[in-house]
Write a structure and sequence with these properties.
The complex is a heterodimer of chains A (about 850) and B (about 290). Chain A has about 850 residues and is of the alpha/beta class. Chain A is about 50% helix and about 15% strand. Chain B has about 290 residues and is an all-alpha fold. Chain B contains eleven helices and two strands, in the order H-H-H-H-E-E-H-H-H-H-H-H-H. Chain B has a two-stranded antiparallel ribbon. In chain B, a hairpin with a 2-residue loop joins strand 1 and strand 2. The chains are: A alpha/beta (about 850), B mainly alpha (about 290).
Chain lengths: ~850, ~290
Amino acid sequence: MTCLRWAGIVGLLGLTLTFCFVSNSYQVFLVALVGLTTMVGVGLNVLFGLSGQISLGQVGFYAIGAYTSAILTTTVGTSFWLALPLAVLLAGLIGTVLALPALRVTGPYLAMVTIAFGFIIEHGAVEWRGLTGGASGLMNIALPSAFGYLFDDRDVAALIVGCGAIVLWLFWRLSVSPWGLALRAVRDAEVAAQSLGLNPLVLRTVAFTLSAAAAGLAGALFAPLTTFVSPSAFPFVQSILFLLVVIIGGAGVVFGPLIGSALIVLLPEYLSSLAEYRLLFFGALLLGVLWLAPGGMAGAIGNRLRRRSPHRVRPSDGIDVLAWLRQGTHGQVLKVEGLSLAFGGVRAVADVAFTARSGQITSLIGPNGAGKTTVLNVLSGFYTPDVGSVTLGGQHVLGRPSHAIARLGMARTYQTSQLFPTLSVLENLLIALQRGRLGTLLTVRGDVRHEGELVQLAAGLLAFVGYDGALERPAGGLAHVDKRVVEIARALATQPRVLLLDEPAAGLGPCDIERLGKLLRQVADADIAVVLVEHHMPLVMSLSDHVVVLDAGRVIAAGSPAQVRQDEAVRKAYLGERRHRELARPATGGTRQKCVLMVQQLSAGYGVAPVLEGVDLTVHTREMITVLGANGAGKSTLMRALSGLHRPVRGVVQLDRQDITTSTAHRIASAGLILVPEGRQVFPELTVLDNIRLGAYCRRGFDASQDLEPMLARFPALKPRLQARAGLLSGGEQQMLAIARGLVARPMLLLLDEPSLGLAPTLIDTLFGVLAELREAGITVLLVDQRVDLALAVADRGYVLQNGRIVHEGSVADIHNDAALERAYLGEFG
Amino acid sequence: MLAVMAIISGFGLGSMYGLLALGFSLTYTVSNTVNFAQGSSMMLGAVLCYTFAVTMKWHMASSIVLPLLLCAIWGVVVERFTVRPFVRRGSSAWLMATLALGIVLENAVLFTFGKEPRSLPSSLAARPLSIAGLGVYPLQLLIPFMGLLMALALHLVFRCTLRGKAWLAVVQNPDAAQLMGINVTGTIAVAYAVSSVFAGGAGMLIAPLFNVSSDMGTLFGIKAFAVAILGGITSAWGVMLAGCSYGIIEALITALFGSPYTNVVTFTLVIIALTCMPHGLFGRAGVKKV
């Protein structure tokens, strides 16, 4: 904070205090009221602004503070200066107790608990006549005195202003301390926060307690201000107004509650003719703020101020990141033995065992659905396996909560980036550097973001991973490749012994992948055991010291990259054996078949980066077309774009000469383009029969004999499970169900997105049979599948997609012999 | 005797909590959101009925049907302006937004309808019937009947009709539901409309027994929400059961200990219940996906 800003704040404070002694009684009262509302608002700012939890019961703590202070000073006769801290303590204690039920629930449930609490206090105050004076309340509350001088109402107002300033200052210290960062981290991404060693329950309880204490403080000061306390001062709507104060002012911003309070308290006074309409006005104002300015008024101003003063940090060359990382490792070995886990009816992982040594890169590979991410989730503590053991340097890891495992030295990155989006890049790393030890509540050392040593370390780590952007940028706005490397830097900032990486190369271009490879090698050189889950075969093969291959939850091969490449089982699981007989292709004759689907120059993307660019595609009646390409090439986006789930798209998509480029998904389904989406998207709580019946929803004419019987004939495994809930079926059965559901719609064009995903080899045979049948029946199909052999065995023509563009189009025979395709899937073979 | 009277009136009142809570349950089942100001929809129904029947002296039939229609429109407005924009953004601000709109409605009604509570006369609450020696208004029998009927209707629709299954599908997998040709946004709008109709209907049924005023809905709505949560929010029967139980417990406490303690005790029970069963009596924990 610059000197100018300090001067301004002190000046404003001085002005306000002077005002208290100079102007008339009523205006002083208003200023004091603003001060009290600000205090409650600051407490709520900690709870809602920093920690992201809604409380609609703050008025309860306000009342507790007021009554405690009033009763102690007036009925019991204690000094105000003792009553004040006791009131704050009591309110805080009750807040901690309320946190117990409140924190087990979220969202609307949490709102309910806090509302109930507010009502209990309000009605309890009315009923407990002996203590609180009932509905008539307590009158003639004693005023505080100091050194023999008795305060009058102006002195109390000045005291309130002073306390308000102190509370604002305390909030500022909290928000820049490690605790403040930790609260925001837990709000942004609870899972990632846990994997950095933060305990969300403790953090949220602290936030609750602080907000209760702040409201209690305000209440304790309210009593001598008005010298009259009654239940009518604490209605339910007041809790809503407190929340309004924070939202309007700007959640999480230091001066937000002050601005909000000034608005809420003073505005009705200055529009006195409209004061009756104040609640109506505030309701409308709240709606307006939520729609148009979710950051509140102070938030909008604050953003502008922050942009004007960037804090550039240059890492000193003295930081040896590798040496620092080596300090954390002790040559520990990660041993996984006999891991098994089933979800409902689906066996995700069965008897998985491997060892990851420090200084080595161990890769887990396998087709989609093989269980790789599940293994990582077990290792980082988010799932508990049914059987098995995991030891790190001899210490048992399983059974501990994930934040405890993180503190043991297990770090990880995620498939979809789990950075804390509202925090800056620097702040993301600073949280990780704390390693779960947050120190005292209010930092005495100063803004943690200016803390020399830690900041240097953070900057050094960021340079180490190759991030060269600004440290103050919010992590949510980073480019994709930057997000990946910053997440790795954040994981490294915990000085881990093991680094688990979940598909770090996803979405990266070739240059970035090469750099990633070099980075991971360096990380391994720091004696960290690197466990890598990846699909990008060239990267895996060139980088790994040890490769473990999973398929359908089991380990089917393990060894050096060279050994694994030659392994028969691996080739079968990944590339397939090409043993599926080629289907006889129907003679096309001379006439051109009718064009069912025409795609011209289709482009689509997420945000700035295009995923598909200029895709041209045609499908004719009775054809089976396949689109091939590596992971990340854009196949799924293509399917989503065609089916209407991804909008908007550029280009033209025509279904039977009807333009569907801008149509919504449900209309496209009714028009006859049916997508069987990737990943077995059944309705888990509905029965198998209901799932199938819903497949025919778009054409509204489901006939059991005409529609159901043929399906059961094609997929006999479904017959005994008709009344079972779809979520309990095995992966393969769910896939069959999804296809049956798509077929029941009698589509003009059927899109199949990765139907072989997670299917065991025997079920792949069944799938092949189904596809062959569809060919015979003359159903028009567009097929995307990672099992190249399967796709090429049934298709008539194929397209190859790479980095969002069509790079090859032709008959199946052409593609069969194309070395480029193999390269795309399995990397260079030696 | 007192206890029996309490149980009867509590059952009636409780089924109203239940009916209001069915509205919460319906929208939550379909979209994982609720109109937090459901109480104001209830008030709207009662106020409109009074306006048409008493102020404008229209025929009773239209004074019942028209408010329900208007409540349905209000439900669509609530969803369109205070729920959809925030769900689209992935924010949970719909909670505060629906609350804010409820405040706006209540105050708008306050300024047009006036502060005075009015009584809505009804032929069903004019003369008590004598049943087993007790005086019971016909309305007190109609209310639980309507409540249970609605619960049954919802239950049947979701269990036995394809359209009901389609609605359940919407929240289980919105993308896949769209691919089945189910209009997801339309479904959610209809759910809110029906939920508002339930609330308005409850308001009209209750109005002859309590008075019609602009703030009649607030406490009612909050209790109905507690009931919905306790019943497990996605289960129509659970919610109705919780509602009736809540009403009966409330009435018994009032009869035995006096009315002042009612709210304190019942709200404390709510907190205790939520502590022990964070997902309500009939709710199920969701699967955590990492």
